[in-house]
Automatic annotation (TrEMBL):
It is a multi-pass membrane protein. It comes from the Bacteria. The lineage of its organism: Bacteria, Bacillati, Bacillota, Bacilli, Bacillales. This is MFS transporter. The chain crosses the membrane at residues 16-44, 56-76, 88-110, 116-136, 143-164, 170-190, 202-222, 234-251, 271-296, 308-329, 336-355, 361-382, 462-480.
Amino acid sequence: MVESLEIKKMHEKPPYGIIAILFIGAFVAILNNTLLNIALPVIMKEFSITPSAVQWLTTGYMLVNGIMIPASAFFIQKFTNRRIFITAMVLFSLGTFIAIIAPTFSLLVVARMIQASGSALMMPLLMNVMLTAFPIEKRGAALGMFGLVMFTAPAIGPTLSGWVVEHYSWRTLFEIVLPISLLTLILAIFKLKNITPNRDVRINFFSLVLSTIGFGGLLYGFSSAGEKGWSSPIVYGMIALGTISLVWFILRQLRMKEPLLDFRIYKYPMFALASVISMVIAVAMFSGMILTPLYVQNVRGISPLDAGLLMLPGAVLMGIMSPITGRLFDKYGPRALVYTGLTISVFTTYLLSQLQMDTSYYYLMGVYTFRMFGLSMVMMPVMTNGMNSLPMISNPHGTAMNNTLQQVSGAIGSALLLTLMTKRLDASAVAQAKDLAASGVDVSTMTEEIGRLAMLDGVNHAFFISTIITAIALILSLFIKRVMPPTSPTIGEVKEQSEK
């Protein structure tokens, strides 16, 4: 009763100062992730590594997120939001410092993973605070502002990265992030207070082991496929081990009174549907952010700065649209927004699968921007509608589940699409070399041109697969209904209100 009165009081006057500190932490974590997208080709050249190897800077980051986030429900319930956030910022700052001084690519990947161990807790923590601090009728607008932070960082990231990489070392990217993270840590130590309710829950270490092996094995297996090949025992062995461990983990959680990650929330149909659509969109969004810079820089030879500027309008528009779609969600519900956004996303992703060697820079910018506009109408409405179907006691598990599946699906999807791109690239290069040799052309003088054409073919192929994946989400969006949270704190029937 006391707790409900405190929550009611909080709903009347949300703790904006505390939320602002959490927003800064989330912002710097997302900014750090997107900063490297433009820098990947430069890092490839410096360390003389392949595209499949360099993706570990992104995939490794998401790998640790996929391992850590399932446990975030436990941490959020067990420990205060102040302790969690300060610990997360310490880890994130440490990883950033190691990245600045890393002499080898392997140590750079380790630094990224240390960063991820801190950032993994920030997003679930922030979302759980938002769900606690705002009443149901204001969640769309509140989470829309949350989306503004999520999408403003990607807006700044590529452009800032392009400018830095063109004029300075890629290490400067981390040198920019470190002071911001340290300042956020200091603010948290002196200003952050506890607002989320805590319970005396215990962690089941065997469940944590199964979760780590399950999600980690799947991510490692799929991420290694591009470099080692699908026939490698390590690849299919890790995928098999991950699958078995994940199934065991899920069955174990369903039998436990205090699960590490409560899969019983999937008894709520709209949460289950929201999770599936969110996973598909994560694949589309992460892959687009990786494939586009590869085409722009490696195929077209456009400078890192111009590559960043090309992606800037789309990310800015996505950030602007997030609070707008949040308010539209509160007023009209999710269906029209999600269906329209996914229709745009499917169409624009298909256009990106038809790129040519002479595709106009501004045409590409327009298509990419329109694609991000479509995705902006999908992400937060889908997530908010799914979370609204859960009782408050299940919010930590809902946020943990959403973030886990988005990270895992984004990592697996990106790795899979990059693998398909690499395979298509290799096959295309061989085919072109044979055709040129058959026509009497000296292939040794055409190596660079063959490589660019093969890369173009690989990027187009990957974007076409992404089109099919996004179309699946479009079909699923037809089944979305607006929901209101159940009054009972236990799993039960959800009152569904059909969209007008």
